[in-house]
Design a protein that fits this description.
Number of strands: 12
EC number: 2.7.13.3
Pfam family, one: HisKA
Order of helices and strands: HHHHEEEEEHHHHEHEEHEEHEE
Radius of gyration: 49 Å
Number of domains: 2
Enzyme class: transferase
Shape: rod-shaped
Strand content: 15-25%
Low-confidence stretches: 57-63, 394-398
Protein name: histidine kinase
Number of helices: 11
Structural class: alpha+beta
Mean pLDDT: 78
Distance between the termini: 54 Å
Keywords: Kinase, Membrane, Phosphoprotein, Transferase, Transmembrane, Transmembrane helix
């Protein structure tokens, strides 16, 4: 059973990890697809808008003479780099304003926080291939800088002045030709929040699915563990049930030998009591109920309980002290179960002397059973009254029994609305104190 449980545990764990890996991979791929969709939407919209501005000669001004004049003046060193850059910036104020309005519109409509940048990466004088600029010129950039740029587009065009040749009116001369290369970059700053917002429902479904599988897994394991414990308890009961009957059987054997040797009038009542004890044990195993009719206990019955124990365990010193002088309205058979279960439990755990005291005060029956046995650890005291529980050392039960004795003691005391207290010290012994209320 243990081997099968370990195998099932391994299978469940492997399947769960596989399912978790599939879900993570699926979520990652879905995230990438959504991210690409958003970037494609931003890219297409941004390029389309910039192209419209180009057509209006407001951004790149492909055929504008003012751009040509600025480049020529800078090429001829008539203006410095600072003035050259200022000319570019001043000539494109309207284009920047429109582009900013477009980005604000996308933020309001779609929630996209877009950072954009348009720059001339090179300007080359074609006749002599001279580079006019040694580093890119930014002609537009949003207030929030582009940190992780996505390239929206690369473009290049030529700008030049034309002049008709006087000798041949049909021939057009191109002068001061420049090759300009531009690049448009952009970044969606809130791309992660946008993607996760779109994937919220999918993420919740995946978490719910994994949680359901995990709960099913835990529930299955708990059932397996519970069933395994039940099987172990059943095996333990089957293996030890004969031992539980040894006490009355041994007493009957002693009584039988006594009858064979010599007639003793006390022997027959002893046999009757042990037969009743066997019947009581059988009823305890088959049903977990208290008797409907109670037989009141008399003072001499307590002595009979101890005599039976002394006859069964001749090597144990049973000390009995009674302060009862009248019948009490508690069931005789149940009190026999309480006394004998407590005393036999002491014997099982190494006691050589067991002391029992019974008394009454203020309509309460007081019972105290103490021994000099092995004692118990403090952590065991809360468990000893559980059904089928037996104290074990190194995961081994060293004492025979069903684990029902103290359970029935607790059940009987609870049925009478009484209380039971236990004190124990390892190597010294244990003491059980019982108080049962009764009415006249």
């Amino acid at each position: 059973m243990i081997t099968k449980s370990k195998y099932l545990l391994s299978v469940f764990a492997a399947l769960f990890l596989l399912l978790l890996g599939i879900q993570v991979y699926f979520m990652y791929k879905t995230y990438q697809v959504k991210e690409r969709d958003i970037y494609r939407s931003v890219n297409d919209g941004l390029i389309s808008y910039i192209d419209d501005l180009e057509d209006l000669h407001e951004t790149k001004e492909t055929k504008d003479d003012s751009l040509q004049k600025i480049i020529i003046r800078y090429y001829d060193r008539k203006i410095g780099r600072k003035e050259f850059l200022n000319e570019f910036i001043n000539n494109r104020q309207a284009a920047r304003a429109k582009l900013n309005r477009y980005l604000a519109m996308r933020l309001h409509k779609d929630g996209y926080k877009i950072s954009a940048r348009i720059q001339y990466i090179s300007i080359i004088h074609l006749p002599d291939s001279a580079k006019i600029i040694d580093q890119p010129i930014v002609i537009f950039e949003t207030k929030e800088k582009v940190k992780n740029p996505k390239i929206a587009s690369n473009g290049s065009w030529e700008t030049s002045t034309t002049k008709k040749n006087d000798s041949n009116n049909a021939q057009v001369e191109r002068r001061d030709t420049f090759l300009i290369k531009s690049q448009t970059d952009y970044e969606v700053r809130n791309i992660k929040s946008l993607v996760f917002k779109e994937l919220t429902l999918l993420i919740i479904c995946c978490i719910a699915l994994l949680s359901g599988v995990l709960l099913l897994y835990i529930f299955t394991i708990q059932n397996l563990v519970r069933q395994q414990k039940q099987v172990e308890v059943l095996h333990s009961i089957v293996d030890n049930i004969s031992h539980e009957f040894k006490t009355p059987i041994a007493t009957l054997k002693i009584a039988s030998k006594t009858l064979k040797k010599d007639w003793n009038p006390e022997t027959l009542p002893l046999i009757d009591r042990q037969i009743s004890r066997l019947e009581s044990l059988m009823s305890q195993l088959h049903k977990d109920e208290l008797p409907e009719e109670a037989t009141e206990i008399e003072p001499r019955d307590w002595n009979f309980f101890i005599q039976d124990l002394a006859a069964t365990y001749p090597d144990v010193d049973f000390i009995f002290e009674s302060h009862l002088a009248r019948k009490l309205p508690v069931d005789r058979n149940l009190m026999e179960t309480v006394i004998k279960n407590l005393c036999e439990n002491s014997v099982k755990y190494g006691a050589s002397a067991v002391s029992t005291k019974v008394s009454h005060s203020l309509q309460n029956l007081e019972i105290e059973v103490s021994d000099n046995g092995k004692g118990m650890e403090g952590k065991e005291l809360n468990n000893i009254f559980e059904k089928f529980y037996r104290i074990q050392a190194n995961n081994i039960h060293n004492s025979k029994g069903l684990g029902l004795g103290l359970y029935f003691v607790k059940k009987i005391i609870t049925a009478y609305h009484g209380k039971i207290e236990v004190s124990s010290q390892p190597g010294v012994g244990s003491t059980f104190k019982i108080s049962i209320p009764y009415e006249n």
